[in-house]
Amino acid sequence: MSRGSIQRRGRHSWRIKVDLPSTNSGRQTRHLTVRGTRRDAERELARLVNAAHDGSLVAPSKLTIGAYLQAWLANPHGLANKTVTRYRQLANYQIIPHLGMVPLQQLRPAHIVDWHAKLLAGGGVGGQALSARSVFHAHCLLHHALERALRSEIITRMPSDRRESKRGRSRFSRLTRSRLCSRRSSTIRSIRWWWWR
């Protein structure tokens, strides 16, 4: 059974210590700093303990989006050559320059919304604006890469499916890659509406 404790580090800073179950006779301890109130730290401790109990807690990783995409596209399995060429173009020109240094586990929906805005404003060659179709293709590639990371248990959630509602509360979209990337004509016209409504 996982247990944990909370210690005050500063005025608005808390240190969480979580003892995790280990496969061998030793034990693992994870330390985390939370900024905010004690209640925020208690919520994070409860989330970590529940995730450890369910088996959904992933090991922390500093793997960036750029490194993950480059490793995947260096040895693509089951993709046609033309598909790999287009994926590499999208990754090298539209994803990695904007999101490449963001750690994969720390990618948030706000990063994706800002990335879309940058691409639509001037993400093309020479700072020209990209079309909604091009942004849509780059989003599909990022979504596909995040699905692979989720299946590999590198990440625990899909930030490309999450968005903010008008009231500021977050909610999850039920869009799957097949729904998002298969109906191109209707989705291309509504990509701005979907992310910014």
Major sheet description: 3 strands, antiparallel
The outline comes out as globular
**Which blocks of ≥5 consecutive residues have pLDDT under 50?**
163-180, 182-197
Q: Architecture of the largest domain in CATH?
A: Orthogonal Bundle
Q: Biggest sheet: strands side by side, in what order? A: 1-2-3
Percent strand: 15-25%
Layout of helices and strands:
Elements: E1 3-10, E2 13-20, E3 28-35, H1 38-54, H2 65-74, H3 81-99, H4 109-122, H5 132-151, E4 162-164, E5 170-172, H6 177-182, H7 184-196
Antiparallel strand pairs: 1-2, 2-3, 4-5
Helix pairs in contact: 2-3, 3-4, 3-5
Description:
The chain is an alpha+beta fold and 197 residues long. It folds into two domains: 3-54; 65-196, DNA polymerase, domain 1. It is built from seven helices and five strands; from the N terminus they run βββαααααββαα. The protein has helices at 38-54, 65-74, 81-99, 109-122, 132-151, 177-182, 184-196; strands at residues 3-10, 13-20, 28-35, 162-164, 170-172. Strands 1-2-3 form a three-stranded antiparallel beta sheet, with helices on one face. Strands 4-5 form a two-stranded antiparallel sheet. Strand 4 and strand 5 form a beta hairpin. The radius of gyration is 19 Å and the shape is globular.
